[in-house]
Structure formats: structure tokens, C-alpha cells
Amino acid sequence: MTLKQSLTRWLAMLGLLLALTACASTPRLVPHAFNFEGWNDGWAKQVDLLEFSYGDQYRETQAKSPDGRSVGSSDGVNGPMPVGEFLYVKWRLKASGEVLEDRVDLRHRLPRDMTDHALTFVIDGRQLYVYVVTPQLVTSKDKAPLLRTWLSRYKRAYEIYPTLSPR
DSSP string spanning 101-148? Predict the structure, then answer.
């Protein structure tokens, strides 16, 4: 075997190894949504949302106020994206100026398959609530109670934080 053949084989093996490493480190994309709506859910008048992060692998599901004011009271992303391992939310109570934050480990709270589901949160004073919204429409026959999120009027939803409601 010549030096040129050995070098070619070595480069091919290196290329294969790099390709396999890239595939292994790329997060799995699942079509689902992350959103929040402070006006519809009733918390926008009482708090300023300062920062949020649904996982750390997708920039579109993260925001931080550069000036300490607010990142807004509504946002949403829908489509193929990594399922977040955590949800971090930081907010300020308008009445007192107190700044609060909460980080929720989602790894054992989300359904195994988030396809076509949505993750949303509601802030009620000092408490953060997190919900999974399923793709199932609510019908007139459903007896499911309304939750803090307005989305529960239209689609089946359940609380995953602070309590883990049965699905």
C-alpha cells in the first residue's frame, strides 16, 4: 500500500468518524409548540416577564431582557424543534418590584412523545404553572375543568408543574 492510499483511507475514516459524531450530537427535532400568552391568561397586568428559556438547544425558545424591563407577554414557536429538558422563567411583580425565578426540570414531566403537543406557562403572582396542551379538541361532552391557561378552553391540557396532574 502506498503512502497516498494510506492517507486516503485515513482521511475517509476520519470523515466517517466526524459524520457519525455530528449525527450523534444533533438534537432530535419533534414537531411541537412552545408558547405563552400573558394577556389571555391574565398575568400580563401583574408581572413583567424578564427572561425565559425552554431548553438550551434552540435560540427561538429563549429570550432575556437586555435592559431589565420586559421581553413581552406573549410569544410562540411552532414546528420541528428539540424538546426542552427544562423551562426557566424569570419575572418581576409590578406591585412590589420583587424579582422571582423558577427552573422546572421537564425530563420526567413531559409525555414521551411531544409530537403536535404544546408547552405553555402561566404566572400567578409568585407561582409559575406549566401546562402541556394536547392536540385533542375539547368537545361539549367533556367534563374537564378549565385550567389557568386559556388554551384549555379549546384543547385538552394538563398541569405538569407545580403538580403533575394525571393525563
Answer: EEEEE-TTTS-S--TT-EEEEEEETTEEEEEEEEEEEP-TT--PPP-S
Q: What is the DSSP string of 21-59?
A: HHHHHSPPEEEEEEEEEHHHHT-TTTEEEEEEEE-SS-G
Grade residue 52 by pLDDT with cuts at 50, 70 and 90: very high
Q: For 11-40, how does the pLDDT look when each residue is reduced to its tens digit (9 = 90+)?
A: 555 454 444 444 455 679 999 999 999 999
Span of 1-5, 29-33, 93-97 with lowest mean pLDDT: 1-5
List the Cα angle 49/52/53 in 5-degree steps.
Answer: 175
Place of cell 438547544: 57
